[in-house]
Design a protein that fits this description.
Elements lengths: L4 E2 L11 E5 L10 E4 L5 E3 L2 E2 L1 H10 L1 H5 L16 H8 L9 E5 L5 H9 L4 E5 L3 H9 L3 E4 L14 E7 L8 H11 E12 L8 H5 L6 E2 L2 H11 L1 E8 L7 E8 L10 H41 L1
Parallel strand pairs: 6-7, 6-9, 7-8, 9-10
Antiparallel strand pairs: 1-5, 2-3, 3-4, 4-11, 10-13, 12-13
Helix pairs in contact: 6-8
Bound molecules: zinc ion.
């Protein structure tokens, strides 16, 4: 199909002033990462439009990013699920956690793991992938929407005790609008768990893997805190890396009772820019070393053949 592009402003501060960080990304799919000079949020610009992304998620996402989907019956993970361990350490998984929504659930592994800890809970999901939806239905998980940008929240006001958003916020077209909907559907004492790649600690080659066309946003602790303030949340916990994942940042948030203004600072831009520039140089040196070693290996092989 033909994908269409759109140009956007910074989702957090509305600025159009940015620096181009890279024109390359995973699978050589179109990826231009820019960094907002006003607030330091990194994002794709231009990017595919909404319809192009919906089509990609519905038909092609699993082929590229979830090649392992095959069985329809999902069993509980054998390893400890980081979401459960992290929530438990703050005593945030209790018998009061009755209704759980996973946004971008994939085939439902996290929900099934949570259910094994909270047998009385009811499970809900928002998931665009057609294959994953089949898995969810087979596992008796209620799919309330396939499109995060629809008005799904209207039918679930104050419904959920726990909302999981594991590595999905960075995929959205409009994170602020999504978080406002999340606020609408959280129960009075409800919490949301959010985990995203930490752009102050990128672990993979930026242009071969870390930057990717499906990651429309590239968050760090500064941009996440501002996003939460703008969309009406109070940050209960924010952790940059633990034994499960050193390059991830996770947050636990609840609805805020007071309105707090975001802090847009050029220092946030500078800190993110420095991390990216250093990493791009390091990635380049790693590739050069790889070429050097393979040349050396070839010469050695030739000398052995000659003998
Ligand atoms: Zn900005």
């Amino acid at each position: 199909m033909n994908y269409k592009f759109e140009t956007i402003e910074c989702n957090l501060c509305g600025s159009k002033d940015y620096e181009i960080i890279s024109n390359k990304g995973k699978f050589d799919l179109p990826t231009r990462v820019v960094l907002c000079k006003n607030c330091g949020l990194a994002y794709l610009n231009p990017r595919w439009d909404r319809e192009s992304y919906l089509n990609f998620y519905k038909n092609d996402y699993d082929k590229y990013y979830r090649p392992a989907i095959h069985s329809k019956k999902i069993s509980v993970s054998e390893k400890e699920n980081p979401i459960i361990v992290r929530l438990r350490q703050y005593n945030l998984l209790t018998e009061k956690t009755n209704t759980i929504l996973d946004i971008g659930s994939g085939e439902g592994q996290n929900l099934m793991d949570l259910k094994s800890n909270l047998p009385n809970s009811t499970l809900f999901a928002i998931e665009p992938s057609a294959i994953s939806q089949e898995h969810l239905i087979t596992n008796k998980i209620v799919v309330i929407s396939k499109d995060i940008d629809s008005d799904w929240d209207k039918n679930y006001i104050k419904k959920f005790d726990l909302i999981i958003m594991r590595h999905v916020l960075e995929h959205f077209m409009d994170p602020i609008q999504v978080m406002k909907k999340v606020k609408n559907v959280l129960s009075i004492s409800g919490i949301a768990y959010i985990a995203v790649p930490n752009n102050l600690k990128p672990s993979q080659s930026l242009e071969k893997s870390w930057f990717r066309n499906v990651h429309t946003y590239y968050f760090n602790k500064y941009s996440l805190k501002n996003l939460m303030k703008i969309s009406g949340f109070e940050v209960m916990e924010l952790v940059e890396g633990d034994e499960f994942n050193r390059s991830e940042v996770y947050l636990i948030v609840k609805a805020s009772t007071t309105k707090v203004q975001p802090t847009f600072s050029n220092i946030h831009f500078q800190k993110q820019e420095e991390v990216y520039k250093k990493k791009l140089i390091k990635d380049k040196n790693t590739i050069n070393k790889g070429i050097l070693y393979s040349k050396k290996g070839l010469l050695k092989l030739l000398s052995l053949i000659k003998k």
